[in-house]
């Protein structure tokens, strides 16, 4: 077991290191072309898929206890958050940025183009929806937190989702990641995987964004005081 863990840790470290070096080189080389965000997105998605695939292989080999698997999930999530350099790594996240106006529609589509079940289909889709809802809620409510602390909050949310739902669907809640790790598995059709791993996370992300946007607007309207003009009458 120790040898398997050591090999996996070496692979994870190598993938993250090479991806980070590649990102830095691409940012410098494409600085005046406007293509650097898409290159960073592509490399970051590759990093995410490779690391997740390695963790999946290690877990499926049965060589590590669940506690260690969750610890590695948390650590790699923190590493992704610290090294992605603004990349989303998730088509649902790109759509959320487009909704909020941080990305144009065309830019979101191009970023999505860079990304490459043990339950009934409705139940599995609901699980992915709830996981995406929970993680997106944490992401939304930690926007103002300093990045070095925020990545730990997001990583904790991801690890909790994996712990709660990993035995049902794998708790992927990322269409690009699911296409890399789940779609090659036998037992379900392509459309069934799309229903669970694409539609579920998309609905979960959008429901979180729309719900809390509406709640924030409603609470801000209720809490804002009425400013009445002060009228003074002076008689000469």
Describe this structure as you would to a colleague:
Keywords: Membrane, Transmembrane, Transmembrane helix. It comes from Gambusia affinis. This is Aquaporin. It is a single chain. The protein is 72% helix and 0% strand. With 236 residues, it is an all-alpha fold. The protein has a single domain (2-217), classed as Up-down Bundle (Glycerol uptake facilitator protein). Helix 2 packs antiparallel against helix 3, helix 2 packs across helix 8 and helix 6 (121-141) runs antiparallel to helix 7 (147-165). 35% of the residues are buried. Mean pLDDT is 78; it is low at 230-236.
According to CATH, the homologous superfamily is: Glycerol uptake facilitator protein
Q: What helical percentage do the residues reach?
A: over 70%
The figure for the number of domains is 1
Briefly note the CATH topology name.
Glycerol uptake facilitator protein
- The percentage of residues in β strands lies in under 5%
- The CATH C-level class name: Mainly Alpha
CATH architecture: Up-down Bundle
Q: Which structural class do the helices and strands define? A: mainly alpha
Shape: globular
Topology as H/E string? HHHHHHHHH
Give start-end ranges of low-pLDDT stretches. Answer: 230-236
| Average of pLDDT | 78
- Main β-sheet description: none
User: In whole angstroms, how far apart are the ends?
Assistant: 94 Å
Give the total of beta strands: 0
Q: Which radius of gyration do the C-alpha atoms yield?
A: 21 Å
Number of helices: 9
Protein name: Aquaporin
Main location: membrane
Pfam family, one: MIP
GO molecular function, one term: channel activity
